Amino acid sequence: MPALREPGARYAPPRVSTLGLRALVLIALSIGLMVADHRQQGLAMIRSGLSAAAWPLQMLVHSPVAAWDWLSASTRTRHDLLAENESLRNTARENDLKLLRLEAIEQENQRLRALVNAAPRDAEHVQAATVMRVDLDRLRHRVLIDRGTRDGVTRSQPIIDASGVVGQTINVGPLAAEVILLSDPTHAIPVQVERNGLRTIAVGTGDSDRLALPYLPRNADVQADDLLVSSGLGGVFPAGLPVARITEVKRDPSQPLAIVNARPAAGLDRDREVLLLWSKPRVALPEAEPPPPPAPQRDTRAKPRPAPTR
Amino acid sequence: MIGDAKSPRLMLLVVALVALVLSAVPLPHVLDLLRPDFLLLTVIWFALMLPRAGGLVTAWIAGVALDAFHGVVLGENALAFVVVAFLVHRFHLRMRMYPLSQQALVVLLLLLLYQFLLFWIDGVTGHPLNAWVRWLPVATGALLWPVLTGYLGRLLTRR
Question: A53 in contact with B at a CB cutoff of 8 Å?
């Protein structure tokens, strides 16, 4: 069609419209990507590459907040710093005292566990990570932290802060990792009431101040202000970390299950710094015995009540 | 209309990167809920005004970039972007003739379709999130359209 190609034509439509075909090919490609990625094995390399490529932009988004933090930190007055230093020193002294006692208790605990032939508690080490100020998704509760596979981070690794469990990693790139918070509507964590060892599951609600415990029967022994700790089942979170505190228990006589809400112990939407937790068994498990995925014998609590029957 | 023939693609890239950054800039929660889908609006504008440089492949790449940037299932936004860009590309000559208010109305429908596709894919991949706040960016995006089209028009096309 020479008429369309004459000089001066400002817009020449494609000669044969392959628009629909191209759209179909790209849609098929997208569906293929989704299927491959949803199964999580096939695209690990590509995803990690894309995550590395996204890193500079994410840093760019994060940088104004980081710059502001730096600016406000470097223009603090001497008086403020002295006061803060003083209070930190006091806290450090108190912590040292507590730690002395804790070490003795830990050794005693190891000895007692050896006596009853229980597996030793896992050795733990932590690394601090900064929560980047990048809004990932307004509907889901996900945050980005500045540690990745380069720092030894793996998928499904527990994230805590000074007061409790924050969440776990889901997508880990070389330089950054995405963390799903406890309050994400698709997250659930196995927990245990600290007072009596009752086990259940706390699920996120999409509200960062509330977790729900939907699987407790009406007559379950829970009350407001009970502390929930991780039970160690499920193999992601080590046992005994504070998770949430129960805020309300509603028992409707016409419903078989109680309505129980809890408030996360960690400041899920306020944390600037979190800790990555590595825990590994203190002694290597014998190779012949396959490690049991749920390890109830690791629980430190006294014999837990049997799981409530519906 | 096609404007600067020597590097429209470079300009597209810069504009798309800015939109991508805007999609993740930390905002207070309320504003975050109202945040329009900047990148999709940009892709609609590309498909409408520069259909040869900013066609379906551009839309697809932008979608994959958004998926990677926000850590959702790879291909989710890519699929929705391609569908929207296809519709715009198919009707771009007609849409250009519309008055601005009517164009914004069409954009509203396109954004609605986009959110519906995301909602559907979320359901298929096992995290259904049926919160009414999901639909807020549709309205803010359509309201932003007249401003955006004027601004990008001045930026990317030669008068």
Answer: yes
* 3 state SS of A194: coil
Query: Is this prediction's ipTM beyond 0.95?
Result: no
For residues A165 and A243, the answer to whether their CB atoms sit within 8 Å is yes
Nearest by CB to A23, from B64, B65, B82: name it. Answer: B82
Give the B window 19-78 contacts with A, CB below 8 Å. Answer: 20-21, 23-27, 32-33, 35, 55-57, 59-60, 63-65, 68-76, 78
CB contact under 8 A, A135 and B25: yes
Q: How many residues does chain B have?
A: 159
Q: What is the pLDDT of residue B77?
A: 92
Q: Express each pLDDT in A162-171 by its tens digit.
A: 889 999 998 8
Instruction: Give the model's pLDDT for residue A288.
Output: 44
How many A×B Cβ pairs under 8 Å? 118
A5 in reach of chain B (CB within 8 A): no
pLDDT tens readout for residues A230-250: 988 888 898 888 999 999 999
pTM reported for the whole predicted model: 0.77
Q: Which of A43, A58, A139 sits opposite B74 (nearest CB)?
A: A43
Point out the residue among A36, A133, A185 whose CB comes nearest to the CB of B26: A133
Q: Which residues of chain A are under the pLDDT cut of 50? A: 1-3, 284-310
Q: Angle at which helices B38-49 and B8-22 pack, to 10 degrees?
A: 160
Residue carrying structure tokens 């944390």: A271
- The pLDDT, as a whole number, for residue A300 is 41
Cβ distance of A22 and B79 shorter than 8 Å: no
- CB-CB contact of A231 with A190 (8 Å): yes
Q: DSSP per residue over chain B, as a string?
A: ----SSSHHHHHHHHHHHHHHHTTS---HHHHHH---HHHHHHHHHHHH-TTTSSHHHHHHHHHHHHHHHTS-TTHHHHHHHHHHHHHHHTHHHHHHS-HHHHHHHHHHHHHHHHHHHHHHHHHTT-----GGGGHHHHHHHHHHHHHHHHHHHHHS--
- Written as six digits, the tokens of A274 are 């979190």
Strand A188-193 with A164-172, pairing: unpaired
Instruction: Tell me if residue A215 falls in helix, strand or coil.
Output: coil
